[in-house]
Specification:
Blueprint lengths: L2 H12 L3 H8 L3 H8 L7 H11 L3 H6 L10 H33 L6 E7 L2 E10 L2 E8 L2 E7 L1 E4 L6 E8 L2 E8 L5 E4 L11 E5 L1
Helix pairs in contact: 2-3
């Protein structure tokens, strides 16, 4: 690498303009430009001034072949790299969130649980649990068991979120409507118990 290139690179590494170097060396800007273009060589006094100004030895200034050329747009490239990294990280986070949330969003809700309702100052408890690969329901009035048995799903129309289950026991037919959009609520027909009431809503405990 020529002396002129070394002077130019050391100036850029220090972030100095040609005018600043010229002022420190007490020469004109055109003289500094001619040094960097290898049109003329700085004299001994100027070389000493340049080495002090750039804080390098004379050997490094005159003979170095390893002075790295400074990037004229380092900040711009760093900004681009940071933007690319930020976009990449955001995309990765979005993919992870979708991977974790989508199964939960589209997974069918479960009817299992314990529900309760109060009618005529009496507590009714509806327990639904998985048992032997089926859904087993038990309906209590206070402490008394009214009906129990396995539920059979009888309807699920189109894209409806409402499922209807039927339970037959002791010559009684008992249906439960379960809305997957509100899994804390089910409604049942208890007209065989309360003739004037077609449905009772049970809230999950």
């Amino acid at each position: 690498m020529s002396l002129g290139k070394n002077i130019q690179n050391q100036r850029k590494i220090k972030g100095m303009s040609q005018e600043k170097v010229a002022e420190q060396c007490k020469v004109t800007r055109q003289t500094v430009s001619r040094w960097e273009c290898d049109e003329v060589l700085p004299d001994t006094n100027n070389l000493i001034s340049l080495s002090k100004l750039f804080e390098v030895s004379l050997d490094t200034l005159v003979f170095s072949e390893n002075v790295q050329a400074i990037d004229i747009q380092p900040q711009k490239n760093k900004w681009k790299n940071k933007c690319f990294l930020s976009v990449f990280i955001n995309i990765c986070l979005l993919v992870v969130c979708l991977f974790l949330l989508l199964p939960k969003m589209f997974a069918p809700k479960s009817i299992e649980g314990i529900y309760q309702s109060i009618m005529y100052d009496q507590m009714f408890i509806l327990e639904i649990e998985c048992r032997d690969n089926g859904k087993f329901a038990q309906l209590y009035q206070e402490q008394d068991l009214l009906i129990n048995g396995y539920l059979k799903e009888i309807t699920k129309s189109g894209y409806s979120k409402t499922k209807v289950y039927e339970l037959q026991s002791n010559e009684l037919t008992f249906t439960i409507e379960f809305n997957e959009e509100n899994e804390n609520l089910v409604s049942t027909d208890l007209d065989w118990l309360f003739p004037n009431i077609k449905k009772i809503e049970f809230i999950k405990k």
